[in-house]
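Troubleshooting log. The previous run stalled partway through. Resubmitting the same two chains, unchanged.
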Amino acid sequence: MIDATPTTPHFSERGIRSRFRRDVRAMVGLIGVCLLVLIGVCGPLLANRQPILCRYDGSWHLPAIVDVIHKLPFSARVVSKSRPFRYPQFDAKRDLPADAFALWPPIRYGPRETSASILEGPTGSHLLGTDDVGRDVAARLIHATSASIGAGLGAMLLAALIGIPLGGLAGYRGGKTDILVSRLIELFTCFPVFFLILAVMAWLGPGTGIAGLAVVIGLVRWTAVARYTRGEFLHLRAEDYVLAARTQGAGLARILFVHLLPNAMGPVLVALAFGVANVILIEAGLSWLGFGVQQPDPSWGNMLRTGYAHLEAAPHLIFASCAAIFLAVLSCNLTADGLRNALSPKLR
Amino acid sequence: MFSYAVKRILWVVPTFLGITIATFALMHLTPGDPSLSADGLGQGVLSASEHQRLSEYFGWDRPLGIQYVDWLWAALRFDFGRSFADGQPVIAKIGRALPATLLLAVVALVASLALSIPVGILSARRRNGLFDSATGVLLYGLYSVPSYVMAVLLILVIGLWWDALPFRGMTSDGFADMSPGQKVMDVLRHVILIAVCLAYRPLAFQARFIRANLLEVTDAGYMRTALAKGLSPGRALVRHGFRNTWIPLITLIALTLPALLSGAVILEVIFSWPGIGRLLFDSIMRRDYPTVMGLTVLSAVLVLLATLLADLAYARIDPRVTYD
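Second attempt completed without errors. Output:
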């Protein structure tokens, strides 16, 4: 949807950077993206049913920090929580002695922790209220960030891994390769994105987790990256340094990735940044429909779904997830737009 | 123009074949035989005899190539088989759902253009003026609001709190007994909220697009001529400048079409709109594969035809267009 015209950088890297820094909207967007990544990574330190640091039974414990480490795949085999924090029946809020030292996260609830207060509006203890099974909305909102950001970055990484080599090859080689790849891109763009993703999901079933979702979205969304890369490489292949590399006997991969790609990186990054915004939007939409992240794990999309089911009784449920999706998409769009303007500052 | 048109139309053939192959591959390459899945075809795992009957019906026992050719030949005659869910011909189900989606797409497109063209022209007239800055920020924010977020908010405020507009389905109860005039009004009332949700993102994009294109032509020689011969700036912008943004705008509209179709899936589900997006969602939930495949092929072909028409219109308007 966003303008896909390739832009050739005619300016020095420093010029681009300083133009980006002077662009208030772009900087706001970038700060937003960084904050989201930070919240995504450090979610367990912001909202957790166990403290970050505490003294219990004569020794020090770091249960929330172990939760952060557990976000890495397979890390549970290497690091595990100290006793008694690894047992689900141990409730730190109840079982820790009142006089023991404990550094708590700002929100003392986990994303899956239920309570007796159901569909309650914002109160002192639940800042954004509770959902239909009494889970804290603020805690879920924070923990859902990593799903959305992870899906966005993961899907676009896959899209880049497919789109950059294919688009680059088409742009550099031209001729039959270009015709073939361009047809393939055209073919993919014929399918409405959501239709294609849903059709694939029909075969994988609604139970497909967030990783599967990211893979499917990446496999569908690579065309935008390929289009940008192709356009850039088409421009750049006539440059003298490409000829120089070729006369020195550089191989195809070397020319594509060492000589051409760094010079085309700006526009490709723009495509990727817009892509991340788009994937966040698609992921939340799919979760909304019941695909993707499944309850009780939180995602902005499935929180919106819960909120919609209780729209009249508890309107507070939708505002938080609506705002989160909006801010995430806005931040990515602002960053991408700022980057594009910094690369080709002709119209503002 | 003629030879361009012929070449352009001929290029549709390989893309069309590609679409059918891709859809067919999707049906066969994804893991899991649909007839074996536990929740395919109603409840419970199929018995061996049922599986046998099904695989004969769909020809799973034959070579892939022959299956494809047969399927393609049937698809060319709009025969996508019968739905797994209710045994009706797939094409009949799609035919019943298509008008609702087309109505929605047309209303949304007309509404977005009716607003984006004046907004685009007005903001290009005084670049970085008050109107330009204000609409710029507003449209930028709007563009970042997902349509389903807007849908939920509109339903809450306008549908539930104010109770001003209906938001479920396409018609009210007792639609059959209404007079033709009442029927039109009823459908129009139902289409408003969902069309707004579908239209505002294209609207934001089109307005900024028109503005950018107009700004590009303000320095053109013919604009200076128009001003020099005494045309007012506004009139010059509309009569001479805007004419030249029509050409990219047509391409943009053609490119918006897939978004209008696919963005409608979630909205049609939220608003219970009986269109093809909702049909797709329902078919997926029921694992009704013939319908899913039929919908996928048809929507892709629809987009293919729309881009073809846009390219032909482009060539008709702009005599400079040639192939490659």
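Takeaways: Chain B has one domain: 90-317. Chain B touches chain A through 61 residues (CB under 8 Å).
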